[in-house]
């Protein structure tokens, strides 16, 4: 996720390019998905407008977009709050991913260059080693890249857009509850299984591993989030 350029002056963050709403969306989305804004916390539109030195209009537009992404929710006469993800949210996102990525994996198994597959595999192995030492960021980066590259390989703009539409929520769920050792080792095992099948140009095996992976992701995400008392 790319954070836009901002200018700091006298303790206040001021946006410096024309597309204010886009920048504001990126910043607030980053704060939510990184956990800086905790699930259930209230967002004050006036405070946000004051922090960035903007009118209420781009703030309202940004919150509406975040609500469309299901990262925030507006409660009548109460305000806007960061969403507390539900079991149904996790199920729906994983179900959508399974359908899209099962198809994409079949295409990628036939078309992704072998050099790219090998590079993804090496990165996944190194990321697991880093995670075993307590550094989870390489795993998150590797996980994101594997799924992104598989979908991007299809060249199907509609499929790519559909997958991108849930990426903020996917990233958020990963940050909220994806640090269990079983999750990291299990995901890496499936990633390697998918990549090895792709390297062998075995589409059926790659797709089967991808489907199992997304089923496991749903189970592990729910378990990890429940242990942190996050999911409802």
From TrEMBL:
InterPro entries in the record: GntR_C (IPR011711), TF_FadR/GntR_C (IPR008920), Tscrpt_reg_HTH_GntR (IPR000524), WH-like_DNA-bd_sf (IPR036388), WH_DNA-bd_sf (IPR036390)
Keywords assigned: DNA-binding, Transcription, Transcription regulation
Keyword match ATP-binding: no
Keyword DNA-binding attributed: yes
SUPFAM superfamilies (UniProt xref): GntR ligand-binding domain-like, Winged helix' DNA-binding domain
One MF term in the entry's GO annotations: DNA-binding transcription factor activity
Domain HTH gntR-type: 18-85
Protein name according to UniProt: HTH gntR-type domain-containing protein
């Amino acid at each position: 996720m790319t954070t836009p350029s901002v200018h700091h002056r006298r303790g206040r963050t001021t946006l410096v390019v024309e597309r204010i709403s886009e920048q504001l969306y990126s910043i607030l989305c980053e704060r939510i998905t990184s956990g800086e804004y905790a699930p259930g916390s209230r967002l004050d539109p006036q405070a946000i407008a004051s922090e960035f030195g903007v009118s209420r209009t781009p703030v309202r537009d940004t919150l509406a977009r975040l609500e469309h992404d299901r990262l925030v929710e507006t409660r009548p006469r109460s305000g806007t709050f960061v969403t507390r993800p539900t079991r149904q949210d996790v199920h729906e996102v994983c179900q959508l991913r399974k359908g899209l990525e099962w198809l994409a994996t079949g295409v990628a198994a036939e078309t992704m260059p072998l050099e790219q597959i090998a590079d993804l595999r090496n990165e996944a192995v190194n990321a697991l080693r880093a995670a075993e030492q307590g550094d989870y960021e390489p795993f998150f980066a590797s996980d994101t890249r594997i799924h992104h590259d598989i979908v991007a390989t299809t060249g199907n703009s509609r499929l790519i857009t559909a997958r991108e539409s849930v990426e903020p929520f996917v990233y958020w769920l990963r940050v909220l509850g994806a640090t269990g050792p079983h999750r990291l080792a299990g995901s890496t095992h499936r990633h390697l299984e998918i990549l090895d099948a792709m390297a062998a140009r075995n589409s059926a095996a790659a797709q089967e591993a991808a489907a199992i992976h997304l089923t496991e992701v749903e189970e592990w995400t729910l378990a990890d989030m429940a242990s942190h008392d996050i999911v409802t």
